């Protein structure tokens, strides 16, 4: 079949042609970028934290009694918690991973006396733990050694403690010392005098509290117990349990903490899965919204194609009957409308490819999204073309049922 007759017929209805083509272009641009964003969000939500997510919970203690002994309470609480059946380990911690609230610090491979352009400077999340920190978190030390009791110091309002050893994540180690970090010194203000501290070990993975941070894999475990640096009565514990024991132990720990010291409030018991879910709530909501938009756009576009094709079939009923009377087969009639639709959708796809990359460029400039991968546009174009062919198949099939006798009717 020659394309010229098809194009001549289309040119008689330019408004319909442009309407469908523009609708297809807008759909392609939005669908491609939405799918790209959805897959990014899914990858973000499902990325491994490095922790034993399913078996960890956090709980806080806030003393209110006169003369409340925070240091004594922490020592007594941890002894009790670690002795409970089903507890793998427990530690104090200044902030909980993935909670969207915590500490950060600039880390350098050289002292401040070295010019800034000669130093590597990297931001890092800071977790203050005791020697039980890695076991309580469930992180894996892949190089060097773990923290021990001799590394741990007390950090208070006046005395920042002595900090000599730290653990860093593999991502932070690679950023600071690509040739190996164990035994190297980093410089930070955490020790109170901008002194150097030694990296004694590297953990495979540990995420920062801020799930939207582009340095989310940059984290550091420092062996310090914070005693009243900002609050004289508050302590936070992170507890890791054996599989299947978490929910039972949440209730047990909460009850026992209240029993051994009545001069405080025990609050905010939350599983790490709950904390993770709250932090990623917006990302999940975005995937649902964008998924709904994609389905709605494809549905509306498909119905638009069906409506336009049905209109063209109705207007050309006598023409179809004439062609049938002159020997055109049912296949020829269906092919005519399928090719006609393919041309219209093809014009829309060509325009849509321009819109797709233009829209992505706008998102990059205003929302700091990455560049759209090259394969999204061609795959999206193929999907829209197939949608167009499926949508027109019904009206085209109905056109094949027009009788040749229709050509002889005058009304």
TrEMBL record:
Residues 293-404 form the ABC3 transporter permease C-terminal domain. It comes from the Bacteria. The keyword Transmembrane applies. InterPro entries: ABC3_permease_C (IPR003838), MacB_PCD (IPR025857), Macrolide_Exporter_MacB (IPR050250). The chain crosses the membrane at residues 288-314, 335-362, 374-393. It is found in: Cell membrane. Keywords: Cell membrane, Membrane, Transmembrane, Transmembrane helix. It is a multi-pass membrane protein. Residues 25-246 form the MacB-like periplasmic core domain. Coiled coil: none annotated. Belongs to the ABC-4 integral membrane protein family. This is ABC transporter permease. The lineage of its organism: Bacteria, Pseudomonadati, Pseudomonadota, Gammaproteobacteria, Lysobacterales.
């Amino acid at each position: 079949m020659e394309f010229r007759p098809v194009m001549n017929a289309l040119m008689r209805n330019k408004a319909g042609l442009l309407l469908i083509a523009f609708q297809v272009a807008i759909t392609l641009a939005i669908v491609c970028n939405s799918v790209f964003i959805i897959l990014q969000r899914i990858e973000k939500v499902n990325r491994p934290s490095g922790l034993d997510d399913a078996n960890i919970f956090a709980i806080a203690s806030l003393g209110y009694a006169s003369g409340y002994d925070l240091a004594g309470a922490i020592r007594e609480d941890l002894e009790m918690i670690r002795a409970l059946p089903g507890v793998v380990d427990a530690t104090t911690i200044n902030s909980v991973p993935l909670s969207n609230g915590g500490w950060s610090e600039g880390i350098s491979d050289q002292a401040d006396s070295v010019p800034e352009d000669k130093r590597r400077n990297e931001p890092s999340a800071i977790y203050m733990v005791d020697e039980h920190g890695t076991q309580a978190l469930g992180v894996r030390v892949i190089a060097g050694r773990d923290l021990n009791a001799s590394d741990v110091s007390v950090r208070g309002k006046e005395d920042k403690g002595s900090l000599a050893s730290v653990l860093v994540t593999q991502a932070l180690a690679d950023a600071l010392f690509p040739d190996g970090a164990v035994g190297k010194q980093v410089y930070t203000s955490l020790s109170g005098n901008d002194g150097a501290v030694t990296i004694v070990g590297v953990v495979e993975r540990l995420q920062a509290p801020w799930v939207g941070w582009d340095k989310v894999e940059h984290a550091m475990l420092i062996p310090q117990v914070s005693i009243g640096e900002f609050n004289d009565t508050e302590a936070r514990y992170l507890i890791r349990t054996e599989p299947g024991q978490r929910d039972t132990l949440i209730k047990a720990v909460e009850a026992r903490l209240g029993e051994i010291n009545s001069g405080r409030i025990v609050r905010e018991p939350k599983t790490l899965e709950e904390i993770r879910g709250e932090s990623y709530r917006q990302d999940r909501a975005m995937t649902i919204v964008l998924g709904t938009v994609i389905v709605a756009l494809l549905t509306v576009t498909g119905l638009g194609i069906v409506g336009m094709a049905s209109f063209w079939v109705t207007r050309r009923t006598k023409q179809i009957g004439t062609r049938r009377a002159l020997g055109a087969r049912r296949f020829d009639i269906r092919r005519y409308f399928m090719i006609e639709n393919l041309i219209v959708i093809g014009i829309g796809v060509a325009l849509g490819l321009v819109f797709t990359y233009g829209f992505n460029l706008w998102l990059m400039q205003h929302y700091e999204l990455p560049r759209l991968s090259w394969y999204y546009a061609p795959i999206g174009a193929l999907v829209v073309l197939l949608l167009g062919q499926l949508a027109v198949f019904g009206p085209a099939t109905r056109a094949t049922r027009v009788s040749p006798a229709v050509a002889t009717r005058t009304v």
